Amino acid sequence: MAPAARGVGTPGQPTAAPPPVTQVQDSAVVVVLRGDTLWTIAARHLGAGATTEQVAQEWPRWWAANKHVIGSNPDKIFPGQHLQPPPPRP
Questions:
Q1: Per-residue pLDDT for the chain (90 aa), expressed as one digit of tens each?
Q2: The whole model's pTM is what?
Q3: Dihedral sign, CA of 86, 61, 42, 50?
Q4: 3-state SS, residue 30
């Protein structure tokens, strides 16, 4: 008899849980999700206490750090793109 496929148990044996799906490949990479904008990504990165002015200053830094991925239009980001956070401010 052939062995059971991974994740499919045989009678009397528990099935293995599939590994969790993650959106971040490593801690420095942000994966664009459906509905994201550079504004929302910058706001999430800054945290809940960020002001509108802080986000307004930060999202262009995200674009500058990722123009090689995004291109010339910061309004055109797509799910699945991998973005690097901008370097820390001096």
A1: 444 444 444 455 554 544 433 343 445 899 999 999 999 999 999 999 999 999 999 999 999 999 999 999 999 999 999 999 999 988
A2: 0.69
A3: positive
A4: strand
